[in-house]
Amino acid sequence: MLDIQSLDLYYGASHCLRSVSLSARKGAITCLLGRNGVGKTSLLRAILGLERSSGGSVTWEGDEINGLPPHARVRKGLALVPQGREIFPRLTVEENLKTGFAGLPKSLRFIPDEVYELFPVLADMRTRRGGDLSGGQQQQLAIGRALVKRPSLLMLDEPTEGIQPSIIKQIEEVIRLLGRRGDMAILLVEQYFEFAQSLADDFAVMERGEIVLSGSAATMNEEDVRRHLTV
């Protein structure tokens, strides 16, 4: 579904993505691993069109989308759960979820029951302000907001960052369930090996803006991967 070929991205004179090639297939979870600052977030932003690449191609369901603005990519089924969650602290949980309506046709501008089924705490706290939620609850809210868009490509940027272990387990189960459902491709950015290993169907490892390892989960060598994750 998603096919990236030889993607380059610069921030001024800094070459942060170097001829990156990566794919993510429907019904599978692709984990992108790497230390902080190697270009993982930049790649997600380039896929969504929030950063303009200087070379290469991003193809989604057979169509090259490099020239499309972010809102047009969202309409094609792309959704991002950003690093740091970026929820609206003064809006209620329900209002935060409704911000996911942007780009949807009027007929789909409602919160799917599935969001509350996957994250019951959001139903219990729907009238509470987003800023009153714990970090783990805010992460569930950010994922729920992305699911409101009915994505066919769900990108998650380090969803375990700063989250308590009990909620990490809940998020892991939700991601696994969404992957097994088979109607979306999931691209998961992570730096913790155990979390990625438990979920990955396919994996890739970045270092200094390049993909240095990739393959199926069955070919993942823990020692090789960890060598690129340790500081």
Can you describe this structure?
- By secondary structure, the protein is of the alpha/beta class.
- It has a domain at 2-85 and 154-227: P-loop containing nucleotide triphosphate hydrolases (Rossmann fold), CATH 3.40.50.300.
- Helices cover 33% and strands 27% of the residues.
- The chain contains nine helices and ten strands.
- The protein has helices spanning 40-48, 70-75, 93-98, 113-118, 120-124, 135-148, 165-181, 193-199, 222-227; strands at 2-11, 14-24, 29-33, 55-60, 63-64, 78-81, 153-157, 185-190, 202-207, 210-216.
- The strands form two sheets. The protein has a six-stranded mixed sheet, sandwiched between helices. Strands 2-1-4-5 form a four-stranded antiparallel sheet, with helices on one face.
- The longest helix has 17 residues, at 165-181.
- The model has no long low-confidence stretch (mean pLDDT 94).
